[in-house]
């Protein structure tokens, strides 16, 4: 039965010239923490695949169904394989982290978790695992986006837009979360940090809508009436933000005038809504996160010290798309020209720089070039 769990996977393997040191294709298995192939996850997969092609990485993508027990079974099966991956990437779950990590340690499979245990207090609750490369030597790193920074920045954008219309009015904020994960807790932290900066903005309620359009729309309409109005809605996904937007229209509200709504993901429909000034903004860039990790893995196998022990730092931060900068960001949001991005150009193996530049500006510069056949010279 367990072998059947591994059947719905996508296997990508390609060879790219212009990679001078590595003599073999590194095998990386990525267990995605999703139970359905949404447009967001398809973007993540497509971008990761493009990066793997540029970096001569044999990438196996497995849908982990968003469930820690199923993921643990998949990892157990991988640990028993004769042909093991050179690196395993997956979402770390507190409840079974110690057991899973011990299994991989015994199998001698290097692994990286897409988690931030410290930020969510998971290091201090029962199932302690410490920090990477301490108790578990094969746990090389945590790789995560700064969801607190993303929520802070998105709420700041919403407040600024709302203040242009209603400069003196106390603002009511509704937060719509997708689940109870560590990322949701980090978003909550970011919201609280921004709210602490002024007295005239209050969080009236924080609700979980389980990433569902219908649920988010229903929740919004009920809570808008319960709190006798809401001025700002910050949703954990663009899908839920669009649900709130449609719910607001049904209540007779005019988006970007009576209410300001934003979400996460740089969803294509959200981009259209921003262009038509229906949604206020969208936070994103995290769809490139797995690709950036593959760049680091490539450098790791080419003798660069990119993973370190102890307390970890965010690997990337969020950027905000609004009406004013939409045109500049559209090439990334619509993700139509991945072949113009050469992810090898971002590696330390190529740049020989001490720090990575995983910025939006660096990506836009790559997209603006006519060819990615060769990385540009450092003097350009």
TrEMBL record:
Q: Which residues form the signal peptide?
A: 1-25
Identify the CDD domains for this entry. Answer: PBP1_ABC_sugar_binding-like (cd06324)
- List this protein's GO terms for biological process: transmembrane transport
Recorded hits in SUPFAM superfamilies, A to Z, give: Periplasmic binding protein-like I
Give the subcellular location: Cell envelope
Do you know which Gene3D superfamilies this protein is assigned to? 3.40.50.2300
Q: Which UniProt keywords apply?
A: Signal
**One of the record's GO cellular component terms:** cell envelope
Record's InterPro entries? Peripla_BP_I, SBP_2_dom
Q: Which Pfam families match?
A: Peripla_BP_4
This protein's major location comes to other
Domain Periplasmic binding protein, which positions? 38-297
Alphabetically, the GO molecular function entries are: carbohydrate binding
Which family does this protein fall into? Belongs to the bacterial solute-binding protein 2 family.
Tell me the PANTHER family matching this sequence: D-ALLOSE-BINDING PERIPLASMIC PROTEIN-RELATED
Full protein name: Periplasmic binding protein domain-containing protein
Instruction: Say which species the protein is native to.
Output: Litorilituus sediminis
The taxonomy runs: Bacteria, Pseudomonadati, Pseudomonadota, Gammaproteobacteria, Alteromonadales
